[in-house]
Each structure stands twice: as C-alpha cells, then as structure tokens.
Design brief:
Mean pLDDT: 85
Radius of gyration: 39 Å
Structural class: mainly alpha
Number of strands: 3
Helix content: over 70%
Distance between the termini: 109 Å
Largest sheet: 3 strands, antiparallel
Shape: rod-shaped
C-alpha cells in the first residue's frame, strides 16, 4: 500500500471525526454509518470517498435538537437556527462594545476636573490632629472651610478651566500653602498663606475691598466669634 495514500486517508478520517465531535456537542444527532470503517486496502478511491463527506453532507443526514425549544429538527434547519443565534450574539456583542465605548467617552474626566478634584479632596478630607487643642482644631477646620470658600468663589467668578490653570501653574507653592493653612499653629502665617492661596486661585492679588474682607473674616475666625 502506498504510504502517502494511507496518510491522506487517515488525515481525512481525523477531519471527519473532529467535525462529528464538534457537531455532537452542539446538539446534532449524527448517523453512526456516516463515517465508513477503514477498508482492508486503502486506495485513492477510498480517500476520494472521505473527501466527499463534507460538513454540508453530514448536516443533511443529521438531526438537530434545538437549544431554544428542545424540538428535534433536520440538520439543515439546525444550521439555520445556529446562524440566526450567531447573528443575534454578534449584534449583542457590537451593542455592548458601542455602549462601553460611549460610556468611556462620557466618563473620561477633563484635566481641569482632576486638578480641582485633587485640591478639593485634600481640603474636604482634612481631619485635625488629636494632638491639637480643641481651640486649634476648630481654627483648623474654619481655615479649611475658608480655603474651600475661596476655591468655590473663584470657580463661580472665573470658571473651572481658568481656576485649574491657575492651580497648575503654581502647584508646588499651592501645596505648601495648603499644608500651612491646615496644619500651622502660627495665626499670622495662616493669614498670609490664605491671602497667597487667594492670589494663586484668582491669579492676582485681591483688591482693597476684598483684602479688607479677608482680614475681617480671618479675625472673626481667630476670635471664635
């Protein structure tokens, strides 16, 4: 027997066996005689007969158990149901991808949002040290609230984008000032830090009227009134 012919025959046989296993797992009932026994003498005609056992031929001689209803259908009707299910699945996958893509686009934060959020979180999440006196703790919270007020007023006046740019330009200095406002026990230093904080957030020194208001409000905070 020609060794090459036998190899071709076994290759075709394995192809058919793989297909039968796959189709059976998907609900097809395939006739046992679809794949002939290995003949005593394998010839080119034997290889040709196996090549003619195509997926279409196997489907045409098989039955299919519907996954949706349990109904037994012809193999061809089963293929139609599978194609329909695959089409629905592909459409659902595309829909989910599109929704995910839209969601990502909708929720990508702007750089200004991140900058403002970082500063606001630093102030809002501040908790006075337990080693501070009660009076100093109250002062620290009042100073924090005052800094938040400066930030909110600036956003109302200048807009988020501009305030974020002002913060970004002086990020290191603002970080130092924020720490002094929240943690320093030196009242005078805190007062000057708040004025500098205002200058950076507003990108300019306060006018005379605003400066007076800042001083008066700080004096009120310090006196505990």
């Amino acid at each position: 027997m020609d060794k090459t012919i036998r190899e071709q025959y076994l290759k075709e046989r394995r192809r058919i066996q793989r297909f039968i296993r796959s189709a059976t797992k998907r609900g097809y009932i395939i006739p046992e005689n679809i794949l002939p026994d290995i003949p005593k003498r394998v010839t080119r005609a034997s290889v040709s007969r196996l090549k003619k056992i195509t997926p279409e031929k196997i489907y045409s001689k098989s039955q299919y158990v519907s996954r949706e209803t349990g109904e037994i259908k012809t193999g061809k009707a089963g293929r139609a149901e599978e194609r329909k299910a695959a089409s629905r699945k592909a459409a659902e996958t595309r829909r989910r991808k599109e929704e995910t893509s839209r969601t990502k686009k909708e929720y990508i934060p702007r750089a200004s949002d991140i900058i403002l959020s970082n500063l606001r979180e630093t102030l809002v999440n501040f908790v006075p040290s337990g080693q501070m006196s009660r009076f100093m703790q109250e002062n620290a919270v009042n100073n924090r609230n005052y800094a938040l007020g400066i930030l909110d007023d600036a956003i109302k006046e200048l807009g988020e984008e501009q305030v974020a740019k002002n913060i970004q330009k002086n990020a290191l200095q603002l970080s130092r000032l924020t720490e002094e406002i929240l943690y320093s026990s030196d009242r005078q230093k805190v007062k000057f830090s708040l004025v500098e904080f205002y200058n950076i957030i507003h990108d300019g020194e306060p006018d005379f009227e605003t400066n007076m208001r800042l001083s008066e409000e700080q004096e009120t905070i310090e006196s505990g009134e």
